[in-house]
Amino acid sequence: MIIKEEFADIETPTGPMRLHLFRPAAAGRYPGILLYSEIYQITGPIRRMAAFLAGQGYVVGAPEVYHEYEPLGTVLAYDVPGTDRGNDLKFTKETSAFDSDARAGLDYLAGHARCTERLGVMGICLGGHLAFRAALNPDVLGPLASTPLTSIPARSARATTASNAPATSKANC
Cα–Cα 20 to 30 A to 136, which of 23, 96, 117, 156? Predict the structure, then answer.
């Protein structure tokens, strides 16, 4: 299936967020998937996954998860400085900001002219945790697909531990 790639800079409570969009070029309306990346943002492998999903008949939105801290369009390198920066930001950013970004991304997809308003989520590495949280939104109907769930505490699906301290993971993704 031939696909189209574009982006939209959408408003969130913490500032503009770039949402990379991949969709079938053929006329029609398609279900939407909010695809979360690993800590490096929208890298080549994430773009290829988004393109693959769009080729299967989905409107895919891949948000830049660190839009409050990096200029729009930033991709962190797969090297030690990029890994360190991505890991620092995943702990710096408030959980509520990740959640409000999910709501903004889901709302944008649901309102997209080519989307049926049927929504699913998917995430890779850090994105697995973010997709898990996004799946708690009542309009997410599709199954959650995530790999791996590195940032979710083993004892709970909540974003905090039993002592209500932030959940952490040192995984480099």
Answer: 23
Among candidate residues 24, 108, 94, the one with its CA nearest the CA of residue 61:
108
Distance CA 122, CA 83 (A): 21
pLDDT tier, 55 (very low <50, low <70, confident <90, very high otherwise): very high
Structure tokens at 166: 């932030």
Q: What percent of the chain has pLDDT over 90?
A: 79
Please report the pLDDT score of residue 164 as a whole number: 41
Alpha helices, DSSP H only, in 7-149? 44-55, 80-92, 95-111, 126-134
Do residues 1 and 55 make contact, with C-beta atoms less than 8 angstroms apart?
Answer: yes
Q: Give me the numbers of helices (H) and strands (E) for the chain, helices first please.
A: 4, 6
Q: How far apart are CA 130 and CA 90, in angstroms?
A: 11
Q: Which domains does the chain have, with CATH numbers?
A: 3-147 (3.40.50.1820)
CA dihedral (16, 77, 93, 12) in degrees, to 10, reads: 10
